[in-house]
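In practice, a research group might receive sequence data for several interacting partners and want a quick structural hypothesis before committing to experiments. The following worked case mirrors that situation: the sequences arrive first, and a predicted assembly follows.
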Amino acid sequence: MILDHNQLTSAGDILVVDDSPENLRFLVEILTHSGYRARPAINGELALRSAQLKPPVLILLDIRMHGMDGFETCRRLKENEQTRDIPVIFASSMTDTEAKIKGFKLGAVDYVAKPLNAQEVLLRIATHLSLSITQRQLQTMNSLLREAIKRAEYANRALLASEQQLTAYSKNLERLVLERTRELDEANRKLTDLSEHDALTGLANRRKFDEVWQVEWLRALRQNSPLSVIMADIDDFKAYNDCYGHQAGDACLQKVACAIEAQAQRSGELVARYGGEEFVVILPNVTETNAWRVAESIRADVEALAIPHAHSPTAPIVTLSLGVAGSIPGLDPERDASDLLAEADKRLYLAKEHGRNQVALPFRPVATLFQRVGPLEGNPADRSRDGAFSHANHASKISNMLTVCK
Ligand SMILES: [Mg+2]
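A structural hypothesis for the assembly, expressed as tokens:
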């Protein structure tokens, strides 16, 4: 790097050391004349003090001096951290090689011979000053570069750490979202469960029944398949509550609910608490005849529970009355879902009117809609259409009658 004169002269003081006042004057004069700032020192001690007090940019050092000579002065300058990097140019009348080698070994950068030639002195000063300044600039640049690399490395590490933190944070967030979603799903499921089920019996509630009933009706219509419904009501339940209390009433409802549910376990079948002591069973893909069989099984199962009911005018135990209605919606355009339900309800009340603890038979005319069903090992006699059937031949009788009705 070549520096211009201004850069050289403005770099700082040049320390001129010589025990000859004439030489000193001469050197200070040529340097000042060339634009440099020159600082004189008449011996080695003063030179060291001056250099430490305010380090010059270059030292022109006489070798032969009274007291401390130039070599010793140079050695001490190089010992001191503050002054060791200042370029030293020896000036002496000594021309032997050994002296030069000694000077270079002590750390001098150059050598000018006495008598001093102004032009040579100025040229060597310019050269070494330029080198020294360039070296310092390079050192500064190097140092800045190292600093920049350190900062970049630090930033990189920080970035990496941030990325890791961000990834961890993101994963944590994902986990939390998943957890909350699961909790929300669970809460929603519970809410749906609560909104669709009867708290006492655990059966579907009226709302759920209405929904499923419509769905099943439309499915049966679409698939041209049969659909049946059973309405069931506990006989004389008010008397039961009055006699045994509401807690026992609740327990009774639960037992009856279980018995009904046990008879409607096939896929798509639904048992619901329709209200109070009334239950309803949806039987998709079940004909009215088979629905009647299911209803009769329910009635028999509840009877078999033998829950005491001392104040029932029907029997000394809890009994059920049931109404059944079935249809193939596609072949029965006159009726809709609510008609079929109303029919089952109507038959339930006919069963009540005709003595309770029975399934009203699903055939017309009304006189034949209900049949008293006897015990399983009851009277086998087939007395009449509106009389009592034995369990053993009941199903075939009903089938025959239904065939006639259709
Ligand atoms: Mg001298």
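Before designing any experiment, note the following. The chain has two domains: 5-140, 206-405. Residues 18-20, 62, 64-65 surround magnesium ion (CB under 6 Å).
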